[in-house]
Specification:
elongated, 3 domains, 586 residues, alpha+beta
Length: 586
């Protein structure tokens, strides 16, 4: 039995010992296993991996790239960002990496030779490095999917680059050493068992006792051999001792001074199994081995904007806005604003110049609360509340990002005319919750009712306009022509919801909320002999006292709309702001 156990331990121990030695040499004390070390020479401008190439969680991935004298960029990010960044861009994609480091790649065609913007500074990279010579990044692999991107710092094709990648598994070197020790212990145990078994058989042969010369083996006793009654003595019965067949004599009687045997000691098999189990437990506790992650289990969404990114945006927005306001720079302000907000700012510049007014005074904007949902594709969006500034109440902004190569822009801003209670989005796991379709449809219906109200003045039912600000004044925006005689001429008012594709609903405790803007355009044409005289204070870019015969005046109002599940709604609006004016005088 000992020989059989020894052979089994030898069979198990030899590969363990070999694997431990080879693993320790291959891994090294830095616990890093080399995955790829290859040169890529491609006609594309970008080299990227698919998410499935990094389908494990646990290790720390180290990636380095070297493009020689050219500046190189290496970065890692969630597929939502990388997919958008490389949309329609021709690039080389690594689809598989073999156990020996063999790389399989495919060329993805696209109408764009390079991305729309350089990769550095886009903000969504989890790790990135740019510069000449070797550039390296390290990212922890989790259940979150990742794509690795390598390209020139200034995108351009072709791309020739050396790429190396390794996975650092904490304690891997120790595990390899312990595996080698377990294998060595198994070999030593196997040697000891086999040798012990041989010694035991040799000792058994040496201690064997030969039978006496006059012993009769396997013979039946005769009647003459039976003792007589006299030989038995005084009628006492005497027994016969019949030797058992075999070569050994009866065992000697125990010595009266001998000590009784104690509890049985563990056999060699038990001791070796216990030792092997202890070694296995030690190996298991030395390192957290990589865990495969199925693609179906990976999160496919990202937080639209993090609080840190929101802080960075408003720091940049404050600086850029103040610089643009000081010189009334239309192009500079367009780098941080969009939509109705951009149009109102640009018109304000024009109005200041016409009226000879001073530029806006400098201000500071800081985020106080970020209501960012998790989204699975671009465009991204988020609501952000800002800190009160002096006598001004806090504001709400709608931030949007068209694609991964574009910057964040302030699309809408609501500055309530007074400090009122604002609806608050609810969050789950740190992210704002997108409202369900049913309450969002109710909200869209209220927006339609508010747009109709702006045109007709007919207030919608169950909508509180107490804090609606300029929304309440939309039905009377522009020139006051309701009392003009029929022969005066023509005038009309058309209102619409601005950028309906930028209307997004977040869940609140009682329903849902959104940020939106309604704009109205009034057109007027006076018949000959008729005109409209503007008051002394003027109107936008129209000077006071001007006699107008034709005009087109557009104004808008941004607001927060909260819709409750009971069907009621509340509007908290900004003031009415002009966005465009065109007129002709008599």
């Amino acid at each position: 039995m000992r020989t059989a156990i020894g052979i089994v331990l030898a069979i198990l121990g030899l590969p363990l010992f070999a694997a431990g030695v080879v693993g320790a040499i291959y891994i090294g004390p830095d616990d890093t296993v080399e995955i790829v070390d290859a040169h890529f020479d491609t006609e594309a401008a970008v080299l990227a991996t698919t998410p499935s190439v990094l389908g494990v969680a646990g290790p720390t991935l180290h990636v380095s790239a070297d493009a020689g004298e050219a500046d190189v960029f290496v970065g890692a990010a969630h597929p939502v960002h990388v997919d958008s960044y490389l949309a329609d861009v021709a690039h080389e994609t690594i689809t598989e990496v073999g156990l020996g480091g063999e790389v399989t790649s495919a060329t993805e065609d696209g109408p764009k030779p390079v991305p729309d913007a350089p990769p550095e500074g886009l903000g969504w990279w989890q790790g990135s490095s740019t510069g000449s010579g070797e550039q390296s990044i390290s990212v922890e692999l989790t259940e979150q999917p990742l794509r690795i991107v390598v390209m020139h710092a200034e995108p351009g094709a072709p791309l020739a680059v050396d790429v190396a990648a390794g996975a650092e598994v904490g304690g891997a070197f120790v595990v390899a050493v312990v595996v080698g020790v377990v294998g060595l212990a198994s070999l030593v145990g196997a040697f000891w068992l086999i040798r012990s078994a041989r010694r035991r058989r040799r000792r058994a042969r040496l201690t064997a006792v030969p039978p006496p010369a006059d012993a009769v083996v396997d013979e039946e006793p005769s009647a003459d051999d039976e003792p007589s009654a006299d030989e038995a003595g005084d009628g006492e019965e005497t027994g016969r001792v019949i030797p058992l067949p075999g070569r050994h004599g009866a065992p000697p009687p125990p010595s009266p001074d001998s000590t009784p045997p104690g509890p049985p000691r563990p056999t060699a098999r038990v001791r070796l199994i216990a030792g092997f189990g202890g070694m296995s437990a030690l190996v298991t506790g030395c390192a957290q081995l990589p865990q495969p992650v199925a693609e179906s289990e990976r999160p496919t969404t990202v937080e639209a904007i993090t609080p840190a990114a929101a802080d960075d945006f408003f720091a940049h927005y404050t600086e850029t806005n103040n610089a643009a306001n000081a010189t009334r720079d239309d192009e500079l302000i367009a780098t941080v604003e969009a939509g109705a907000l951009l149009e109102t700012t640009r018109f304000a510049y024009e109005e200041q110049e016409v009226r000879g007014a001073e530029p806006f005074v400098s201000f500071t904007i800081a985020a106080s609360a970020v209501a960012a949902p998790r989204l699975g594709e671009y465009p991204l969006w988020s609501f952000v509340a800002t800190e009160p500034d002096g006598d001004q109440a806090g504001s709400w902004y709608l931030l949007t990002r068209a694609d991964a190569a574009s910057p964040w822009l302030a699309h809408l801003a609501v500055h309530p005319e007074q400090d009122v209670a604002m609806p608050q989005p609810v969050s789950r796991d740190g992210s704002a919750v997108v409202a369900d379709d049913e309450i969002a449809e109710r909200g869209d219906a209220v927006l339609d009712e508010l747009t109709a109200f702006a045109e007709t003045g007919q207030e919608p039912d169950d909508v509180d306009l107490s804090y609606a600000g300029g929304v309440s004044r939309l039905p009377e925006h522009g020139l006051q022509l309701d009392d003009a005689p029929p022969e005066f001429g023509s005038h009309d008012r058309q209102c619409q919801l601005r950028d309906p594709d930028q209307v997004h609903w977040l869940a609140t405790e009682f329903g849902a909320m959104t940020l939106a803007a309604i704009e109205c355009t009034q057109t007027m044409g006076a018949n000959p002999g008729y005109s409209v005289v503007v008051g002394p204070e003027g109107l936008g870019i129209v000077p006071g006292g001007a006699e107008i015969v034709n005009s087109s005046i557009t104004q808008s109002v941004s607001f927060v709309l909260a819709v409750d599940t009971d069907g009621s709604a509340t509007v908290v609006g900004d003031r009415m702001r002009p966005t465009a004016m065109d007129y002709s005088e008599a």
